[in-house]
Amino acid sequence: MKLDHDLWRWVLACMIVLAPAASFAADSEYRIGEGDVIKIEVYDHADLTSVARVSGEGVIHFPLIGQVRISGMTIPEVSQLLAEKLSDGYIVNPQISVFIEEFRSKKVTIMGQVNSPGLYELSGPTTLLELISKAEGLNREAGDYLTIRRSSPETGTGGEQMIPINLKDLLERGDTSLDIAIRDGDNVFVPKAGIIFVTGQVNRPDAYKLEKGETLIQAITMAGGFTNLASQKKVKIIRKVQGRESVLENVSMHTPILPGDVIVVPESFF
Questions:
Q1: ∠ at Cα 139 (134, 143), nearest 5°?
Q2: Pairing of the two strands 206-209 and 126-127
Q3: Are residues 9 and 131 part of one domain?
Q4: Model confidence over 55-81: pLDDT tens digits?
Q5: Are residue 125 and residue 143 in the same domain, yes or no?
Q6: What residue numbers bound the domain in which 71 lies?
Q7: Entry pTM
């Protein structure tokens, strides 16, 4: 399938608009950190309403219970923690709501086959699709997968995790479960797809993204099919094998195509 920049942008826009569940997931998965300002409300206890900025040590001060360390926690986790502390001798069955009043700026990197790679500062919950949109979408050489390299401080090991995302499932099949929340410090990489080149007597000679298992006839069809001048029986494949160029002639139309192949459809002189 040949990729089109405007098509990618349109798909991204539709996915972002039509996936409110993903945005909700981003809110619930957002991990509070230094600089965030949160508002805490306790049902039927207006005197305990509190607005606090998370300190450099990752703590806030809350009435009755004093300092509470919340850095690295999600909003539901903070609500549960505060409820547990208040129920310990202060309030029976406290109902707590936590809101982010002001988000700290988080820094993420997206590199590879996007139109504007680089470092981005984001305010507030941001999903993968929203980040790709900020990077002006995928370019025509983008592969079918991307990876997110993410540090895992919550494990206590200081390690990293690699999160693979199937872009075809996300963008073409609409699997919004893959539109995960982006975290501070994430590194997103979109690798280049296998590219083939179709030239000569086809209707749309160009470079094309190679689909898995694609054959010669499928590649020619993708390029718009043969012209009236094409010599269909003399199609050649120019292929590099271990750094050396070889020419495959008299090939079957069902021959599998490999990344980097150049398909040449000559003109018929008869």
A1: 110
A2: unpaired
A3: yes
A4: 988 999 999 999 999 998 999 999 999
A5: yes
A6: 37-102
A7: 0.59
CATH number for the domain spanning 50: value is: 3.30.1950.10
Between strands 181-182 and 50-53, the pairing is unpaired
Q: Of 66, 96, 98, 71, which Cα lies nearest the Cα of 84?
A: 96
pLDDT for 24: 42
Decide if pLDDT at 156 tops 80.
no
**CB-based contact 139:3 (threshold 8 Å):** yes
Q: How distant is the alpha carbon of residue 266 from its chain centre?
A: 41
Write out the E strands in 130-261. 145-151, 160-166, 181-182, 187-190, 195-200, 206-209, 236-241, 244-248
Q: Is the pLDDT of residue 160 over 70?
A: yes
CB–CB of 90/96 below 8 Å?
Answer: no
Taking the C-alpha atoms of residue 178 and residue 25, their distance in angstroms, rounded to an integer, is 11
In terms of residues, how long is the chain? 270
> Could you give the number of structural domains in the chain?
3
For Cα atoms 158, 163, 166, give the angle at the middle one, nearest 5 degrees: 175
The last residue of one of the domains, among 126, 160, 190, is 190
Task: Give me the amino acid identity at 132.
Answer: I
Q: Is 174 found in the same domain as 117?
A: yes
In a domain, 91, yes or no: yes
Residues 116 and 84 in one domain: no
Quick one: tokens of 224?
Answer: 């718009």
pLDDT band of residue 43 (cuts 50, 70, 90) is very high
